[in-house]
Amino acid sequence: MKRAHFLSAIVGVGFFVGSAFAEEARKIEWDGMKATYEFDDPFVDLTSEQLMNLSMVARVRMLEERAKETGKPVSEEMLKEKRASEKLLKDQKVDIDGLLAKRDEIREQRKKRANMGVEELDGKLVSLPGFVLPLEFDGKKVKEFLLVPWVGACIHTPPPPPNQIVHVIVAEPFATKGTFEAVTITGKMQLKKQVRELFLVDGTADINMSYAMESAAVEKYEAPGGGEKK
User: Fold this and answer.
1) C-alpha closest to that of 43 among 107, 91, 92
2) In angstroms, rounded to a whole number, what is the distance separating the alpha carbons of residues 20 and 60?
3) Does residue 50 share a domain with residue 103?
4) 169 with 144: CB under 8 angstroms?
5) What is the CATH number of the domain that holds 150?
């Protein structure tokens, strides 16, 4: 996944932003959009193999519970895989029951962290680079879009966390040569939780976001050091 400051190619097209406005703005990056929220997450210490085995155990246990209601037994092959996964985890001193009991709690904690914005950014004049995912047009010009940190976000890859998406309404519609144009937005950042429906080729999806910027100025992204990064 490529962030704006590692852009390998930029589509050239005219954009606009007042130079004085840009100079006054604080330049931020996507990592600076994430709020600090500490909690005990025992799953981060597991290897990918351990997580896969834990997932297998959880899935088969769920099927076993469901079988009590439906009368449809779990296949012997799946039961065998579950037993093998349980043995591997126990041999590695992994607390299977303890971890599975905390799944819902940890999921909610992770969701809370992903939704949290940085309060000190609320109302501040900032500049942020990213990629355009258009929402609304004025003729052929974009007037509303989502700014996302990497190419393909929400369409070709799962959406970023809500605190890694900015809902942008521009000061003046601008022309773009296609989805995922690389730009820098400048304006007053708002902490504003929203859900927007995004229309995709194979249906629609609800996208959650924690930030918004209205009357935003937009300019073509330039790599650090000046000029376009080739």
Assistant:
1) 107
2) 61
3) yes
4) yes
5) 2.40.50.870
CA–CA separation, 109 and 160 (whole Å):
17
For residues 7 and 229, is the Cβ–Cβ distance under 8 A?
Answer: yes
Q: Is 5 helix (H, G, I), strand (E, B) or coil?
A: helix
Total structural domains in the chain? 2
The 3-state DSSP class for residue 116 equals coil
Is the pLDDT reported for residue 2 higher than 70? no
Indicate whether 225 belongs to any domain: no
Q: pLDDT tens digits for 135-181?
A: 999 999 999 999 999 998 888 888 999 999 999 999 999 998 888 99
As to burial, measured by CB atoms within 10 angstroms (0-12 exposed, 13-18 middle, 19+ buried), residue 35 is middle
| pLDDT band for position 197 (cuts 50, 70, 90) | confident
pTM of the model: 0.73
Is there a contact between 141 and 173 (Cβ–Cβ < 8 Å)? yes
| Domain extent at residue 64 | 42-114
145 within 8 A of 133, measured Cβ to Cβ: yes
Find the radius of gyration of the CA atoms of the chain: 23
Q: Are residues 124 and 191 in the same domain?
A: yes
Is the model's pLDDT at 182 over the cut of 70?
Answer: yes
Q: What is the residue whose two structure tokens read 């501040």?
A: 124
Listed residue (83, 175, 165) closest to 137, CA to CA: 175
Q: Based on the number of CB atoms within 10 Å of its own CB, is 131 exposed (0-12), middle (13-18) or buried (19 or more)?
A: buried
E strands within 49-159? 125-138, 141-148
